Amino acid sequence: MKITAINGSPKGKKSTTYLMVEEFLKGARDLKAETEHILLSNLKIHHCIGCFSCWTKTPGVCVFHDDMQKINLSDSDIILFATPLYVDNISGLLKNFMDRNIYSGVPTITKDAKGEAVHPKKQKVRPKIMIMANCGFPGQSHFEVLKLLFRRVARNYQTDLIGEIYRDEGPLLTWPDAELNEIVEKYKLLLRQAGKEIVQKLKISGTTQKALEEELIPQDLYLQHHNEFFKQFLTK
Ligand SMILES: Cc1cc2nc3c(=O)[nH]c(=O)nc-3n(C[C@H](O)[C@H](O)[C@H](O)COP(=O)(O)O)c2cc1C
Predict the structure, then answer these.
(1) Is 190 exposed, middle or buried (0-12, 13-18, 19+ CB in 10 A)?
(2) Which residues contact 7 (CB under 8 A, 6 or more apart)?
(3) What CA–CA distances, in Å, run from 22 to 52, 100, 145, 198?
(4) N or C: more exposed end of the chain, with fewer CB within 10 A?
């Protein structure tokens, strides 16, 4: 089994997204999965200009010959989309990648089992997808848009959404504060466990899912620390 993570954080290796993906992939590798972690922040990928040349003039080939050509998802069984939450949505980097990935589809339109329009599948078996996101606010409600979005993306890609990992209070995982070590290490173990479960059963167990969604620290304490830090930058 091969899992490819597409990391949409502009902060690359310094990001919370990076830490989360790495731990998850470690767990998957423990059970012999092959893994790849692609940092979009290291690549130059032009945004889609909607010319549809990849569907008409040069089928399967984009007008932009850029780093998108370095990404090959054809041998991946699972694609893990990983992103920081930006204005309640995925990052621009990740959206840009997903738009450019459209040439992997077929331009004709058919109907799915529910009668809803969709592009036919190019390959019989499409990679399954996962979403992993973290955000700066406390509370799981901030991921409501992503929860709906990735259900729709799975339908659009005609595949299954097999896992969702959402971490609120995300910056805590990369704050240089030794007092947080125990909390961070406990959460890393859960991410590794989720990676193992995905390899074993193509899903995250209810127990692990519940634990992954627990608060890292109480919301009021998080706000207190956050506001205390940013107070120094406020203009009067
Ligand atoms: C442009 C921008 C928009 C953001 N929008 C939100 C938001 O809508 N909700 C939220 O909780 N956090 C928001 N954040 C905070 C990030 O999600 C948070 O800092 C996250 O931990 C960054 O993850 P990373 O280190 O993996 O890049 C935003 C940050 C930026 C830079």
Answers:
(1) buried
(2) 15, 17, 18, 21, 37, 38, 39, 40, 41, 82, 83
(3) 35, 25, 24, 15
(4) C
Q: Which of ligand 1's atoms lies nearest the C-alpha of 9?
A: 27
Q: Which domains does the chain have, with CATH numbers?
A: 2-231 (3.40.50.360)
Whether 190 and 22 have beta carbons less than 8 Å apart is answered as no
Residue whose CA lies nearest to ligand 1 atom number 2: 86
pLDDT given for residue 149 in this prediction: 98
Please, what is the angle between helix 181-201 and helix 16-30, to 10°?
Answer: 50
**pLDDT tens-place string over residues 1-22:** 999 999 999 999 999 999 999 9
Q: Is 180 exposed, middle or buried (0-12, 13-18, 19+ CB in 10 A)?
A: middle
Instruction: Please say whether the beta carbons of 132 and 43 come within 8 A.
Output: no
Give dist(CA 177, CA 174) in Å, integer: 8
Residue 84 near ligand 1, beta carbon < 6 Å? yes
Computed over every residue of the chain, the mean pLDDT equals 95
If DSSP codes are grouped into helix, strand and coil, which group holds residue 35? strand
